[in-house]
C-alpha cells in the first residue's frame, strides 16, 4: 500500500518523496495550494505520482487522498509556522488518517519539545506529540535538530540572518536528506517493534554555533525570503520563504545537543550538506 506525503512542496516533503522514488516506494503527495505552484504539480505528475492539492483543514479532501494509503508522512509543522496551526494541522491529519483507515503516521517534531515550555512552538510540539501518542494508529515522532537543506523555508531565513537570535548557541545541524532517510527507516521499523508509538531524537554529526551555520548559508539567494515589497516571483520559482516567526529567535538561541539516534545511518557532515544545498540552489 502507498505512502502519502503532506507538505511535499517544501524541504522535508520533497526529500522524502525523492528518497522513496529512488527506493521504488509507492508514494502520493498532498500539496498546500498556498505554498505550492503548478510547476510542483506538473513535476510530480511527470514522475508518475498521484497529486492532490488542498488545505490540511479540509479533512474531507485529505481523507479522499488517503484512501488505501498505509502510511501518511506529515512533513509540515516547522518552526516558521504559527504554533496554533501546527497543532491544528496534526489533529486534522490524524482525524483524516483514522477516517481513511491508515495504519501509520510519521511526523517530525522539534528537539526541546516540552509541555512546560514557555516557547509556544516547543510547547505545541509536545501537545502534538501527546495527541499522536494517544491516537488509535501506529505513530512515529522524530524530534529533529535544526534542519537545513534545499527547498527549505527555514534555511532561507537562516541564509538571510535571524535578528535577535544568539549566534553563540550550539546546534547539531541535520541535513534534510538525513531526516528523510530517518523517516523511511522509522517507518520500516514499525511492525518489528512492540509499541504503537515510537519517539526518536535525531541530530546531525557535528556541533557548531549558529553563527557558523548562518555563515555557511549566507549568499544563497535562491533560499532567501522574498521581499514582500518587491515583485512576486514567477510560479516556477516555488513558494516564498515566510518571514521569521516571533518564537523562532528563542528556538535558535538555545543549545540543542542531545544524544542523537540515527537509526543506523551516518549523518551528512556539515561541509558536505552546505555544498549540496548550494549546488541545489545555484
Produce a short descriptive summary.
With 282 residues, the chain is of the alpha/beta class.
Task: Please tell me about this protein's structure.
By secondary structure, this protein is of the alpha/beta class. It has a single domain, classed as NAD(P)-binding Rossmann-like Domain (Rossmann fold, 3-Layer(aba) Sandwich), CATH 3.40.50. The protein has 10 helices and 11 strands. Strands 3-2-1-4-5-6-10 form a 7-stranded parallel β-sheet, sandwiched between helices. A two-stranded parallel ribbon has the order 7-9. Strand 4, helix 4 and strand 5 form a beta-alpha-beta unit. Helix 3 packs across helix 4. The protein is globular, with a radius of gyration of 18 Å. It starts with a strand and ends with a helix. About 10% of the residues have low confidence.
CATH class: Alpha Beta
**Residues in helices, as a percent range:** 25-40%
Report the sheet with the most strands, covering strand number, pairing sense and barrel closure.
7 strands, parallel
Task: Give the CATH architecture.
Answer: 3-Layer(aba) Sandwich
Portion of residues in beta strands equals 15-25%
Overall shape: it is globular
Number of H/I helices: 10
The helix/strand order is: EHEHEHEHEHEEHEEHEEHHH
Number of strands: 11
Note the gap between the termini.
Answer: 37 Å
Average pLDDT = 85
Spans of at least 5 consecutive residues with low confidence: 224-241, 260-264
Spatial order of strands in the largest sheet: 3-2-1-4-5-6-10
State Rg: 18 Å
Taken together, the total number of domains comes to 1
Could you say what the CATH topology is called? Answer: Rossmann fold
Oligomer category: single chain
Give the CATH H-level superfamily: NAD(P)-binding Rossmann-like Domain
Structural class: alpha/beta
